[in-house]
Amino acid sequence: MKPLSRPSRLAPGARVAVVAPSGPVPEERLQAGLDVLRGWDLDPVVAPHVLDRHAAFDYLAGTDADRAADLQSAWCDPAVDAVLCARGGYGVQRMADLLDWEAMRAAGPKVFVGFSDITALHEAFARRLGLVTLHGPMAAGIDFLKNARAQEHLKATLFAPETVRVIASGTGTPMVPGRARGVTLGGCLALLAAELGTPHARPGARGGLLCLEDVGEEPYRLDRYLTQLLRAGWLDGVAGILLGSWEQCEPAERLRPMLADRLAGLGVPVAEDFGFGHCAGALTVPFGVAAELDADAGTLTLDEPALS
Question: Catalytic residue at 213?
């Protein structure tokens, strides 16, 4: 696995487009997020269908075609420097095949931010565009709006990425001690399992530092997702694993034995409680960057800043 191309960092006055590729977005939370972005001296613009709700399926932010058109239009607009997702939920997999990936590749690199259901787009951007993306807070996310650490870490990554080359949650502990080098990838465990066999997913995590997290899942379901990745050979050759948050997934004492049972046998360093994902104060982790994981210290050190 090779490092991907890095987009340029943002500067004051940069235009950022907010899109909703997945679930419907509460207007009050969107407005609060836009205020945060304006406070960073950014120029946020809202895609036309961000506040839509699908007529038949109320878990979608409008039709698949409209959500795809918003993302593609924002990405291909030369005046837009970054595309930020408003929230996750569900819906990316329904619209990913409607995107014109050739046109998006021709538009050139820019910053892309999101997590959760957006995991499917992180995979697609890596596979189709060869581009570093940011697994980080979303513009209308509750944790982003209410947590200074989440805001400041994302802001530093966007404007001064050299200041956050060492990512440390402060709570990380080794499930399997050791150090490992590789290229970062990953996201929401359920989405990585669901993406197996699709045209936009990479064939495996070989040579990667795999970041995993999830929300609202029973332990047996997480076991199922990990077992599916193991049986499919997707984890063969992975260099190391970082475990983020498992919000609403049962207490840690119930999850840890299962995670250790599924992952420790890979024989690679595994760090847990790394502080990214669906948690308060979630850290921004770039995907597609060469880095070193120190599971004992609970640190991820990037070879170079996430953005150029």
Answer: yes
Q: What is the pLDDT of residues 146-171, one digit of tens each?
A: 899 999 999 999 999 999 999 998 88
Pairing mode, if any, of strands 208-215 and 240-247? parallel
For residue 227, report the phi and psi dihedrals to the nearest 5 degrees.
Answer: -65, -40
* Regions of the chain with pLDDT less than 70: none
Spatial separation of the C-alpha atoms in residues 308 and 295, rounded to whole Å = 27
Query: How many angstroms separate the CA atoms of 85 and 83, rounded?
Result: 7
Tokens 């979630």 belong to which residue?
282
Q: One of 22, 116, 169, 245 is an active-site residue; which one?
A: 116
Nearest of 86, 134, 124, 84 to residue 104 by alpha carbon: 124
For residues 276 and 283, is the Cβ–Cβ distance under 8 A?
yes
Q: Catalytic annotation on 278?
A: yes
116 is catalytic: yes
- What's this model's pTM, rounded to 2 decimal places? 0.97
CB 203 within 8 A of CB 242: no
Distance CA 40, CA 300 (A): 26
Residue 143: predicted pLDDT: 82
Catalytic choice (22, 122, 195, 213): 213
Instruction: Provide the pairing of β-strand 43-46 with 15-19.
Output: parallel
